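SECTION: protein entry
WANTED: fold as tokens:
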Amino acid sequence: MTRFASAFLLGLFALAAPAAHAETPTFTLTIKDHKFEPATPEVPAGEKVKLSIVNNDPTAEEFESHKLNREKVIPGNSTGTVFIGPLEPGSYPFVGEFNEDTAKGTIIAKQ
């Protein structure tokens, strides 16, 4: 492959990568007082979605969903990211594993 062709292909990848991330819908979940807000976020079905999880508590929490096959520890006063989907329409329960009695919710995927 010529040097020009290599540079051209690298340029195409550099332009395509940010565009792919820019199109991913982002939804924010906040953890405060060991509760998720909103507790029932609605996301579009059939699309990959980025969950930005903001932990405003001073202690760590673990976002966990067996149905989504996702878990992520978010340290206190920090933000974590979880990608989900594309999802079929339906409901997907999740909990904060370190505070399951209070930190729980359900993601609703709608058409």
About this structure: The chain has a mean pLDDT of 88.
